[in-house]
Amino acid sequence: MHNFNCIHAIFLAIILTRIGVDTDDVTKLLNIPKGYNFFEIPFSPAVNNYTPPINVSFSTTIETIRKIDEVNKELTLGMEIILGWTDWKMLAFRKNLTPSQVLDLIREGKHNNRIPNMITLNNPEYLKAIWKPNLYIYDLEETSQPKLMSNLVTLKYDAEGGYINYITKVILRFSVPMEFEYYPLDTHAFTFRIRGFSYNENLLNLMWEKPPVFADHDHPNFDVQLESFAQSKAIIHDEKFNLLSFKIIFRRKISYHVVQTFIPSFLLILITWLCFFMPQRLVEVRVGICMTTVLTLTAMQDRQGSPKSAYVKALDIWMVNSIFFVFLILVQFALLIWLNNRKIECEKEETQDMSPPVSVNVRSATKNFPNRWNNGIYDVENGHGFYVKARKVRITAKRKLAIILRCIWILESVAFPMFLTLFFIFSGVYWGCLIVKSNFMNWPVPNKTLNPNL
């Protein structure tokens, strides 16, 4: 008799996987009880006037991280989902059991001994004729199924009982909260949550069949691992629902930005420092190098393709400060050019007249020596006789020249050590605060049960 039932079930499986059938045909072929209502929960028999909720097991394998969209803040996962439950009405009907016999079967645990007798069907039409749990997944935006010749859905059922196993492969796209304040040392987390939608905990007991498994960890931009899973309660409209969840964490791989951003920007700043070792007469060349460096850093900042946000990111602080340090050096070189021009003017002024001190009338001086005495005349137009000594002009020029030479010496000898010190102080504070506040180094040790491939 047992062999006949198995042959009959296999025959039905072949028929259902090769042809599409209506719901009524499925009901007849699978021997569903007459008057079966797939809107009613197939509870087990009541015990002492208490009807226990129907148990629905859930397990999943995260097969691939298909996409992490930082612009739209979305995460796309390729998952295998397995749901299992026992339809007690079908079990009692197929085995011709009374409610007390069903309870005895449950107490003995014989209803769990079903794996060897599971029959596989690849036609989801079977689900249309039986009760099935409706579940809600939080933050889910879109669902799709990969297919070759048909959707990847498998139904397994106990040929003699009422246990049903639903297996499917799906692609799920979720909305994920992402914060990029510490970009590119940012770490993100996503919590997958699923619960019963129409049935509270008194009607449906959603539980883990086994821990979730994360099979794929090879992502080009992030280190990813499954951190934990849990079973809890969710309160919706004063009703409690069983809630299953697992948490995925992903940390950005910083190697790209080290090679493409931080090292090049440091080398560009180093190039501007090398300008301090050029001869002073090449100060215009120094300015040209600094201008080119500023433009290069600006273009580098634009091409980074960092996530868009209304707030300042850590990478923005680094790039802006790099440009600012080059700007300070550019200001220093501009001051050197201005001081060198003033030095030349003072040297010319000093050599204009080396004659002994004499007193001359301003009016005659302007007539006879307009070029020589031009800098010494202050009140020619008011008609007063005004006298000035030539030696006073020479002493003033020397003082100006001494001050200018002193300023040039300070800029040449003090500016470079000062810029060097400020940059390394900034770098130490920047990296120290960034690493501590971002918790980038606090990456947990992977759980081998949840992450077998790590």
UniProtKB/TrEMBL annotation:
Residues 261-344 form the Neurotransmitter-gated ion-channel transmembrane domain. The chain crosses the membrane at residues 254-276, 283-300, 320-339, 401-431. InterPro entries: GABAA/Glycine_rcpt, Neur_chan_lig-bd, Neur_chan_lig-bd_sf, Neur_channel, Neuro-gated_channel_TM_sf, Neuro_actylchol_rec, Neurotrans-gated_channel_TM. This is Glycine receptor subunit alpha-4. It is found in: Cell membrane; Membrane. It comes from the Eukaryota. Residues 1-23 form the signal peptide. Keywords: Cell membrane, Ion channel, Ion transport, Membrane, Receptor, Signal, Transmembrane, Transmembrane helix, Transport. It comes from Folsomia candida. One of its GO terms (molecular function) is extracellular ligand-gated monoatomic ion channel activity. It is a multi-pass membrane protein. Residues 34-233 form the Neurotransmitter-gated ion-channel ligand-binding domain. The keyword Ion transport applies. The keyword Acyltransferase does not apply. GO terms for cellular component: plasma membrane.
